[in-house]
Amino acid sequence: MSEHPATVEQLELLHASARPRTKKAAEVTDAATDPVAVVLLDLGLAHLDRTFEYAVPADLDAAAQPGVRVKVRFGPQDVTGYLVERRAEAEHVGKLSPLRKVVSDEPVLTPQILRLCQHVAADQAGSVADVVRLAVPPRHARAESALAAEAAVPWTPAPEPSAAWARYPAGQALLRRIADGEGPAASWLALPSVEETLDWPRALADATRTCLAAKRGVIITVPDHRDVERVARQLDDLIGKDAYVRLTADQGPQARYTAWLKVLRGQVRCVLGNRAAAFAPVHDLGLMLCWDDGDNLLTEPRAPYPTTRDVLWRRHLDCGAALVLGGFARSVAVQQWLVEGRVRAVETRPLRALLPRIAVAGDDRDVARHGPAAARARLPVTAWQAVHEGLKSGPVLIQVPRRGYVPRLRCAECGHGAECATCHGPLQLTGVDDAPHCAWCDTVARPFRCPECEGTRLRASVIGARRTAEELGRAFPGVPVIRSGAGQVRDDVPAEPALVIATPGAEPVAIEGYSAVLLLDAWAMLDRPSLQSNEQALRQWLAAAALCRPASAGGVVVLAGAEATNPVVQTLVRWAPAAMAETELAQRAALDLPPTRWTATLTGSADSVEAAAASMPEWLERFGPAPVTQGAPVGSAASGESLPPERQVRLLLRAPLQRSREAAAEVSALRVRRSLRKAKDTLAVRVDLDGSTL
Asked: Which residues, 6+ apart, have CB-to-CB distance to 385 below 8 Å?
């Protein structure tokens, strides 16, 4: 780790306070071989994000091996850290403090994972200790003692032909390279299918079996627990339940640590999980699979906010393991890698009979046939007919962009967004008999008065899933209504007729596929104030449409609430995600936006952001600061108290991609300077490599 020149003297003085002060402590005998321990401390301070040297007492010589957890004295307190190296001589001049304790003799921080954490921290302008905290789960002593110490011999399956990969011209070649121990990097555009032997979970399982047959390890990362279950069912069939472990956020501490230890000790070579699985210490790693890398669930919500895609790419560069990034849509970040030649495309032109028929409600033909009002209602005639016909043969999926009842309200007179008089948050309704209240501070807005026109009447801006379920339940009496969203996500639904109301990402899988899929309020997906609004809208529409039966089996997808001429809508109709990714990347390149430029955002008080801007070098472009008007309060735990959004400003930093490491180093130096000053004002720092914060 490099250290800031201005901090060397302060660090040495602080470290000196940890030296032995009593005669008894000073007489501790050091180890005869490599008596110096290099320790990475978990301090949470940017200016102390480096290694420190300690003496290895003779009685800890055997246990103090690289990778183990240790306790040391730092200043006035004992702190936890990781022993990363043993040395014969110290760089520090003077007496070293001894290690206080080896917490466990389990070498949890392997050299490979430490290198990965260092690279990710450098890319994201973060602290190595913060990344290590994401990579290594908390210790669970009972799990360590309960798990057998002997490393079981991993079972090696026999390779089998894959019907799922045979659908793609380059699919079999990809599997052959994986079987031969090569490390290709691929962007895979998957085709939808309601047959389990052809669907994407089976394709991931087939690739896993191929790699395990070559006696190499596998990491599989998917966005949420429902995806984990779908892939797990295929792995159970192909390689067996004991040939892999799960690493997910919903596991208990002991179960998660036990699974992680099995991987660390080499008892299993396959890991299936969410974003934390990307750091799993798999032995002889040969393949990394990531499904739907553009999903926000695969972005770490804790500093320094790495994405699973970027973590896996770093591992690919470090160990040469094969990398496959799959999805029904291609993220713009992966499209940039495709242009740069980092990855190769695995895709094919789909046959229309294998896809559902896709229609757009409210187009010119609908207007001519049914009139403007009926054609462009929230539930147009075309959509109503599709639902009515679909219920004759199976379940119908209705995707609604917002959860809740009426999550957004507007003034009925002028259309201005209804805001809370206390904190300026958006007003919402949670039930038919509830009064309007703030979504942020829960203050009841009674009476309401618009600050723009003094109007007192409200109207719905967006209809939520609960209200939609009520309306459709009345429109189709006697039909079961199933809701799937935050707090009540369903994994699957039977093949019987039913109305399934789901928010994006929470759509259950129908046993035999949906007979019809209705994409409601499409305008709400496209009008989100985000650089990724088009990319995310197409990704979520394709994910829902992929659950529908093919056109040959009568499957139909109807999109309502957007113009048929919209480019994103046309991409859905043509099922052309590759063309959409190319167009989005070209537009961002023309505007110098990520991922074609390195970008970082600094959010906080006006004083802290302006001071940070003044300290940046001239070659680093600055845009802003500008007020933060959208979203919940943003803050940094290490930077003082968070501020409400109306008191925050945001500064955008931009640099060419070839200077990304240099730019990240400048932002890291800013964090170090603020940490040394013990700055109390708020400043949240985030490197944005794909435009997710814009």
From this structure: none
**Cis ω before 304 (30° cut-off from 0):** yes
| CA separation for the pair 526, 569 (Å, rounded) | 10
Residue-wise pLDDT for 630-646, tens only, equals 544 343 333 334 555 55
CA separation for the pair 315, 619 (Å, rounded): 30
Could you report the per-residue pLDDT of 28-39, keeping only the tens digit for each?
677 778 899 999
| Tens-place pLDDT, residues 55-74 | 999 999 999 999 999 999 99
DSSP H or E stretch at residue 608: helix 606-615
The alpha carbon torsion through 166, 171, 173, 179 (nearest 10 deg) reads -90
CA distance 71 to 73: 7
Q: Using CB atoms within 10 A of its CB, is residue 353 exposed (0-12), middle (13-18) or buried (19+)? A: exposed
Beta bridge partners of 358: 557
Name all contacts of 99-102 with Cβ < 8 Å and 24+ positions apart: 99/37, 99/39, 99/54, 99/55, 99/56, 99/57, 99/60, 99/64, 99/70, 99/71, 99/72, 100/70, 100/71, 100/72, 100/73, 101/60, 101/70, 101/71, 102/60, 102/63, 102/64, 102/68, 102/69, 102/70
Confidence (pLDDT) at 640: 37
Q: Are strands 245-247 and 270-273 parallel, antiparallel or unpaired?
A: parallel
pTM of the model: 0.87
Q: Please tell me what DSSP assigns to residue 402.
A: -
pLDDT at position 641: 43
| Pair 192, 138: CB distance under 8 Å | no
Cβ atoms 42, 129 nearer than 8 A = yes
Give the whole-angstrom CA distance, residue 557 versus residue 360: 8
